[in-house]
Amino acid sequence: MSGKRITRMLTIAALAVIPMTLVTTGSASAHGYTNSPASRAYHCNQGSAQDCGAIQWEPHSVEGPKGFPEAGPADGSICAGGNTRFAELDDPRGGAWPATDVSGGQDFTFRWHLTARHVTTSFRYFVTRDGWDPGQPLTRAALEPEPFLYVDGQNQQPPADVSHSGTLPNKSGRHLILSVWDIADTGNAFYQCADVEF
């Protein structure tokens, strides 16, 4: 067999391996979502929101670049984590997403269900400012600048079901809570938007 033919066969074999490497070294296929308050992704999965697209089958996959709010998903695509496959989550639906009833100043238990338990930097919870427009896609300017609840993940692997207790801010009317799960060992975070009625 000639040297050129051997080189060609090795090149073809190497090219065949590259796609398999890309498939097997990508991020895990499942991660986590919030069910208290119920996120938009969770409502889609449970059927209490319709016309949701692919997110209805994978509410745990709203993953995007970490570093929010300085980095991360662009304004208008925060609820989908910047992932165009889940763009339905960024549609405000005229403020008609199902909402969880809460009270300003109440103690509340935030819950995540994790389908892949990544080593964690933190969990952070943001809320929209007074006077924000629930008929518009979520932007950084619509959120209070600091999270109202911060939980240090201590670079540990959390359990499959995670609960955080905190006090809700004093708000009234319709708002949105953005939950951000910052992963320690990847460049990504998980984003969940939950509509609430104070």
TrEMBL record:
Domain Chitin-binding type-4 stretches = 31-196
Q: Keywords on this record?
A: Monooxygenase, Oxidoreductase, Signal
Give the signal peptide, or none. 1-30
Lineage, top-rank taxon, reads Bacteria
Q: Which GO terms describe its molecular function?
A: monooxygenase activity
SUPFAM superfamilies named among the record's database cross-references: E set domains
Write down what this protein is called. Answer: Lytic polysaccharide monooxygenase
Native organism = Actinophytocola gossypii
